[in-house]
Amino acid sequence: MKEIMKSLAAMLKVKTMVTFAVITVFTVMALRGELQPDNVMIIISMVVSFYFGTQHEKMKE
What angle do CA 13, 42, 44 make, to 5 degrees? Predict the structure, then answer.
């Protein structure tokens, strides 16, 4: 049981880092003018929604 909890904690940390990395990359690209701000907002909204949606589901279990 403890191994499962450790694995779950490690996965959450990776997901958090990936989420912040994606947000950072798309924000920088938007600031450089490589992407339209509307597109960046859509992408970031989807990533954040997915991240918090999975977090919410795990808390229910």
Answer: 20
Q: For the chain, how many structural domains are there in total?
A: 1
Q: Which amino acid is at 11?
A: M
At 9, is the pLDDT very low, low, confident or very high (cuts 50, 70, 90)? confident
- Cα Rg of the chain (Å, integer): 15
pTM passes above 0.70:
no
Classify residue 35 as left (phi > 0), alpha (psi -120 to 50) or beta: beta
* Token pair recorded at residue 2: 């403890």
Whole-angstrom distance, CA of residue 37 vs CA of residue 14: 26
How many residues are listed for the chain in this entry? 61
Residue 42: give the domain boundaries: 2-60
